Amino acid sequence: MRGAVEERAAMLGEYIKENKATVRATAKKFHVSKSTVHKDVSERLRYLDPQLYTEVKAVLEINKAQRHIRGGLATRKKYKNL
To answer: For 25-37, how does the pLDDT look when each residue is reduced to its tens digit (9 = 90+)?
Structure first.
């Protein structure tokens, strides 16, 4: 089981890096929970592949900075359709 978890963490990290994906989008793509994705890329990946970890961390920081904007747009769209 140990190898599968490490392999999954690397795969999730590569996907986030290549697609500039959010944790939520990555979780949906790989059919795992957001908590699993977050733990894999923020804790496990740090020790498995430090270079990939820093690249993924940069993408997640950008996503975090933009999250309030995406939330506002989603709310706007919701009420516009009512």
So the answer is: 999 999 999 999 9
